[in-house]
Automatic annotation (TrEMBL):
Class of enzymatic activity (EC top level): hydrolase
Active site: D303
InterPro entries xref list: DHOase, DHOase/Allantoinase_Hydrolase, DHOase_cat, Dihydroorotase_CS, Metal-dep_hydrolase_composite, Metal_Hydrolase
Catalytic activity reported: (S)-dihydroorotate + H2O = N-carbamoyl-L-aspartate + H(+)
Name of the encoding gene: pyrC
Listed EC numbers: 3.5.2.3
Full protein name: Dihydroorotase
Positions of substrate binding: H58, L59, R60, N90, N276, H307, P321, G322
SUPFAM superfamilies: Composite domain of metallo-dependent hydrolases, Metallo-dependent hydrolases
Keyword line: Hydrolase, Metal-binding, Pyrimidine biosynthesis, Zinc
Amino acid sequence: MSSYLISNVSVVGAAPTDVLIRDGVVAAVGAGLDAPEATVVDGTGLVALPGLVDLHTHLREPGREDAETVESGSRAAALGGYTAVCAMANTSPVADTAGVVEQVWRLGREAGLVDVQPIGAVTVGLAGEHLAELGAMADSAARVRIFSDDGHCVADPRLMRRALEYVKAFDGIIAQHAEEPRLTEGAQMHEGEVSTRLGLTGWPAVAEEAIIARDVLLAEHVGSRLHVCHVSTAGSVEVLRQAKARGVRVTAEVTPHHLLLTDARAETYDPVYKVNPPLRTAADVAALRAALVEGVIDIVATDHAPHAVEDKECEWAYARPGMLGLETALSIALDVLGPQWDLIAERMSRTPARIAGLEGHGLDPAPGVPANLTLVDPAARRTIEPAELASRSRNTPYARMTLPGRIVATFLRGEPTVLDGKAVL
Ligand SMILES: NC(=O)N[C@@H](CC(=O)O)C(=O)O
């Protein structure tokens, strides 16, 4: 195996030092390290973070390999500074059996660019009627611990209760896409002043908040673990705050786009801004940012949702919801939070790794720790060109925006997946 000496690098914002990687692990951290056999990576001006971990990625394989594959999504992730991603279950066929989750897990291993941890569906075919084979997926080679019908809400409270109870046996988590379907029929965007003006059917904040309120009560009642996907409203933050104060075992994520963009984007009628849950108001954005800093929202997760051109570049009403996220998440976090490196490491690496139980991830570089890390150039600015993204899809809402920060290198178990800002494999 190879060795790398990252010289003069700031580890999570601290004073510059050297990091020696050997045989897949961090061998030493300290100023003036000497390792003649090692390849030197000049870390001057760069910040080393534990490799980012995404709890919410859509890889589209099997079924929509035209939009993304495990391999192309893994490459996008590595270029975004990620060393592990959790792959959502809304593939075709749905990841609701041991066979499908093992297939995704194996494809991730073959690509070898990030660790791909499959998420299993809660219900058969995401149909919300019968529990999927949660135990078989947990016992499979993929060792699934997170289950989600993301894209759909587990709306039936009895099924949700059963799922929460079931996963307690292996300390699993139900990750809920909180959307009361009866309140969002035909919805196109956030229900508010802009939707009224544009004449588009609204997706009210209460459709999210009502499900989160119900689910924290269910999780409390059965003593199980709930994770709330893509929290998007100020009201949801208040429900979560109260639940956490009572000691409910709930964690929550916010996406980069909900931290930056508002429903005003819909005025362009450009479906690149159509997403589930929808972009909300400036007051919601402010509340989400504050909740992320405070810790009421535990993590940033991308909800990377690649879509083929024909599914996105069409009339707003017919476009699929979702936007790309993996290759821009760190830049958005840096833009929104500023260079608060410890907070960024906490919300984008350490905590998501802990929630998902991903061993060897989310650990700051220290002797003996698996060398999963990423190097960021905080001074660089880059203009997002959709054609240059590694994703097979082009639906980034940040096209031609200039964003701070650039991923210079990513290491997975001591081997570079990205060097000089380019994918290695
Ligand atoms: N977040 C999105 O807007 N889209 C997701 C699923 C979903 O949550 O609707 C997708 O899979 O495309």
